TrEMBL record:
Residues 59-168 form the F5/8 type C domain. Keywords: Calcium, Cell projection, Cilium, Metal-binding. GO terms for cellular component: centrosome; cilium; intraciliary transport particle B. This is Intraflagellar transport protein 25 homolog. Its main location: other. One of its GO terms (biological process) is intraciliary transport. It is found in: Cell projection, Cilium.
Length: 177
């Protein structure tokens, strides 16, 4: 099912504002509705899934067994791993301009992370939206939800500024829009 069909399906699961306003099923209306509807918080769209059209357009390191695309496959069992040294970064591009409320990241060994938004198609200019330090976990994934409340972004850049060891891994990024 493509992402617009999924959005239309979500629109019809009993949302009272959909029923009251007869929201159009056109793609733009669906995008607005999914990002604006306060009644769909339990079924919010994860805009960072490759199945919805998100792409990793840049990563500073790559391992053929653990490629950057694993970040957006929706699974915590697969991952991208850095090749050492800091900073490391990756950029996720969305198929449409997005309004983003929360970024969730499942990772290992990240100490300090900065998230920046980009609004241009060429992903050249970015503005910081979050800078956070993660707690160290010995034998489990770090799971962090970061509130960003970003309007109109086409790209998110993740800068891993430091780690608890020479290598870090990112298992899953979710973007609630």
């Amino acid at each position: 099912m493509n992402r617009f069909a999924e959005m239309s399906r979500l629109r019809h699961i009993g949302c009272t504002c959909c029923l009251a306003t007869q929201v159009s099923s056109r793609e733009n209306s669906c995008l607005w509705h999914i990002s604006a509807c306060k009644y769909l918080t339990s079924t919010m769209l994860d805009a960072a899934l490759s199945s919805y059209g998100a792409q990793v357009v840049l990563a500073t390191s790559s391992d053929e067994n653990h490629p950057p695309e694993n970040i957006i496959d929706g699974k915590t069992e697969t991952f991208w791993i850095s090749t050492g040294m800091f900073p490391q970064e990756f950029i996720i591009r969305f198929p449409d301009n997005m309004k983003i409320f929360t970024v969730s990241i499942h990772s290992y060994n990240i100490k300090r992370l900065r998230i920046e938004k980009g609004t241009s198609d060429d992903a050249e200019k970015f503005e910081a939206v979050a800078d956070t330090e993660f707690e160290h976990t010995e034998n489990s994934l770090q799971a962090n939800d970061i509130s960003v409340n970003v309007l109109n972004t086409t790209h998110l850049r993740f800068l891993i500024l430091s780690g608890y060891g020479p290598f870090v891994s990112v298992h899953k990024v979710s973007v609630q829009s």
